[in-house]
Amino acid sequence: MTDAEGSTPTQVTAGRPREQWTGQVGFILAAIGSAVGLGNIWRFPGVAYENGGGAFLIPYLVALLTAGIPILFLDYALGHRFRGAAPTAFRRVGRAVGRWTESLGWFQVAIAFVIGLYYTAVIAWALSYFVFSFDLRWGDDPAGFLTGEYLRVGEPGISFEFVPNVLIPLAIVWIAAIVVLAAGVAKGLQRVNVIFLPLLVVAFLILVVRALFLDGAAEGLNALFTPDWAALGDPNVWIAAYSQIFFSLSIAFGIMITYASYRRRRANLTAPGLVVAFANSSFEILAGIGVFATLGFFAFQQGIAVADLEGLTGVGLSFITFPAIVSQMPGGPLFGCLFFGSLALAGFTSLISVLQVVSAAIQEKFRLSPRAAAIGVGVVSAVLSVLLFSTTTGLLALDVTDQWANNIGIVASAVIMTILVIWVLRRGPELRYHLNAVSTFKVGRLWVALVGVLAPVVLGYMLISRIVALIVEGYEGMPGWYLLLFGWGTIAFIVVAAIVMTALRWRDSPDDFTPWPEYPPAERVASTTERKVSS
């Protein structure tokens, strides 16, 4: 069987040709939709502000060029060359040393599974607040409304007291996600991104333009972009830059491996990768402008400096600070609808990419159709998500699980992946050859060095320092048993899931596979033989 290019074989699963994006634009929009998520809006502005303001853009750009884009290319090369979700790709890339390399793929799938459980809850909150914006339901005390009336936050523990205000929108998000996954790559994921991504950009642009005309907006922008050059001498600022790039681009936990595997054999990889990376960073800067222009207005209304404001990142920024701002500004309900609508759109396009990692892996391992895998994965995930994150302890469980899954799970995955592929399996030259064989923008030996040396060193430092901090300092003053259960328990679940899934038998062996194009190239082998004969 040939692919749409009519030249090379396409992997067949369960009697069907492998799903594909309809074209390059569809892939780019889907990849951007995955990268542009909640962190772009609620994390980047605060991180930049706290790490040198305008000066932070220098380490941020360095981190993008030396780690973000190189690891993104690594994900693309693995998925595209070995034509599979993360477990399939890692099993094939390490076939010469045994099936154990498949476990890294399942490690990444398990991370995506865990993230999908709580990411859905945040989208449900955003949908609720979108509705609340019409009548400014949070009143004069957004903090009290969020933790009290809306989430009904209790003490750390395990609660089965469900919160209807969260449960209903959470169920709606899960139903929508399952429908999209069941529709497949082209009719589901691609179509949603083609609609939602432009809608997100338009809505957020309107929000930013409105924010720029608020009283105090200039002071907010000055606070964000005024450079603190002394910060460049602080190693923690550089680590913060690498951390932001790493978490923002959706790399090293299976998403881009899976997405690249749906591209046609003769498909440009590196040029679209640059588009995705810089589009993601552009949206982060746009988000920074919108958020800090709005924070400038808030500080102006209170007669204080922006530096004296609290809640500049994460849940506090989105669900406490912004509702307070919306209540005070002219046309607040419309502004609130735009903000929370954008938050929900950005979250949903990222969510479906996370869930596709799990669905695709299950499809390939057990020879299931996209619909069967989507329903199976979706129902199990939805039940667990409702049990864990729609109760009075949902916010606390979400906070702890997110901290461990991201800062330990994903970072560990990246460190192991770069060392395994470049140093243990020594596949760097082959993957570099693959990228250059199908792409217009060529990568050199520097790419292999960045992926194999700089990335594991920087990310390894991040991983070790975070583990030490969590062990020594704990997290947010929560009880040790709670951190053990939802924090370290999350990591234990990911490791056990990877081992168990690797041990299960494949319905169809993934080993009967020949990567394309041939490596080393036939002409190189022929020329080497000729030189030996002539000598």
Automatic annotation (TrEMBL):
Query: Where mainly found?
Result: membrane
TM spans, by residue?
21-42, 54-74, 109-132, 166-185, 192-213, 237-262, 274-300, 338-362, 374-398, 404-425, 446-469, 481-504
Statement: the UniProt record of this protein carries the keyword Chaperone: no
Highest taxon of source: Bacteria
Is this entry keyworded Transmembrane helix?
Answer: yes
Localisation: Membrane
How is this protein situated with respect to the membrane? Multi-pass membrane protein
**Protein name, UniProt field:** Sodium-dependent transporter
Q: Which organism is it from?
A: Microbacterium salsuginis
